[in-house]
Amino acid sequence: MSTWLEENDLFIDPQRCIGCRACEAACAECDTHRGVPMIHLEPLDRAESVKTGPTLCMHCDDPACAAVCPADAIKRTDDGVVQSSLKPRCIGCSNCQIACPFGVPKVYRARAQMNKCDMCYDRTSVGLKPMCATVCPSEAIFFGPKSVVETQRKNKANNQFIFGKQKITTKVHIMMDTSEDPVNMDIVDFMSVGIEDSQPWEM
Question: What is the CATH number of the domain that holds 75?
């Protein structure tokens, strides 16, 4: 029998984000990392627009951060939430920070520990919504069943991403105008100069 958390997911809709940063303020109130938000807003097209989009842990089904941790400090719960590093185990090596394709984990040098969004596990594990989803005035961050969010939005919920030859499936969905096909996020496609045309740095 599935749990409440397994039946509900987090959905990010960048087109609805109004840049109010209420999510950041609410996240900072979390008991597990009080004062430090584990979500932030990223500019989507700084040169042309003030548009922003929420950025937080995507909670991968097969998290790269956990795979590269030499201390086995990063765990994924049975209901799909990838948690922050375990304080007694984390050695602050930054492997997770480098390995994450979404650039989410942050190693805080003062305490030599990695912290990131854990989907407010202290709340979601007992049937409450994450803090960010409770305060977002435009519902750019939505927590609930996929069947519900897709009946309310014209966009499709996507949780499959391709980085190079690697396909990643996540618990967090991004609302997109495209079909449900995986979105190719190969970094090479976003380079202004192709690898074959690039020149070595001059000394």
Answer: 3.30.70.20
